[in-house]
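tool_call: predict_structure(chain=1)
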Amino acid sequence: MALHGQTGTRIRERRMDRKIRQADLAQSVEISPSYLNLIEHNRRRIAGKLLAQIAKQLETTPEQLSRGADSTLLDQLRTAAAHMTVSVEIARVEELAGRYPGWTDLIAAQARRLSVLEERVQVLTDRMTYDPELAGSLHEVISAVTAIRSAASILVGGEKLDADWQGRFHRNIYDDSIRLAASSEALIRYLDAPEADGPVHFAPIDEVEAYLAKEGFHIEALEAGSDVAALMASANLRSGAAQSLLQSHLQAYRADVEAMPLTAFSKAAKAGGYDPMTLASQFDVDVAAVLRRLASLPTGADHPPMGLAVADASGALLLLKPVDGFAMPRAGAGCPLWPIYAAFTRQGQPIRAEATLPGPNGQRFLCYAIATNAGVPGFDAPLVLRATMLVLSDPPEGAQQKVEVGVACRICPRKACLARREPSAIM
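tool_result:
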């Protein structure tokens, strides 16, 4: 039985799972059994203190009873089902999440782990096939081995050599062995995996986002006037590519701090209702910079949590700061209806839209997006577009444009979608 977002149904299912009699639960929260019966059959609304009391007796949270499972968790379960060949009861996924939250979290965690492992295998495969640094290192090793073998074969070939030539060949073998040792050590360092007790990041952007997530995407040292070089020295990123990406991000962050100082910007953002256009005009900066700056505000300072996505014109995500319920797939194509992609069709024009995920309790996000030229303008210069999107969860109902989005076509249940690229595996 699908729950369809009904609080009373969730209460009844949770109570029955825990083998609690209706009369006992009613007594524990000081209401009559008949009133509880009406609640469980969705004939009476419930919220506030009573909902909290019932949730406490059922050892769950009011949010779990009132809203059901988080939409992100449900999407993870649907994604896991879409990648399997076995038949599962997709229509009852919310019931599964509501009745067995522990098992649901386990399934989702295992699905995420499988996805990470598959991505690592693909990255390693591409690395072995296309990585020029790896190919160059292997060529250097093979070249040194071949030179040593050639010189050694002459020495053991039986031909009499005078002492001078023998010394030359011995010297060549020694020099080539030193070159081989250095090449082998460099190759081992390049292929060496990180320590087992730490996170594994095969893509440079993974390292950068892990560092930023650890800081909460709010770099306190830069806010206080610290130097980018000093911060880079303490970042301890593993790859040179990740260091380059982080340096670019920190330089942009530092420029945003100088143009929009934290104290003044934080006060103005609250006063202006976090409207990017108002802030851009007030601080005389472009809208994309305002979107980045809003996403860097500390959530502990009474600011709402805000997500951020940055993409290039190919649709590849260059940076992703998730927020509860919002995440976009980095591997594979996401939903093209997100405002960040629509911004590419309206260069320089800011877009504001309310994006709604599918489902009876589809989560809503207020999105601000804009695409700007990241290159150097010129008659013969290519147009290099970069789109930035700010995301706020559960916005108040407003008059902004509404758009129905999904995570990816393969796990999207929307039937009449003109943007669909492939059939849904859950329909």
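agent: The beta strands are 306-312, 317-321, 351-356, 364-373, 385-393, 401-404. Proceeding to next step.
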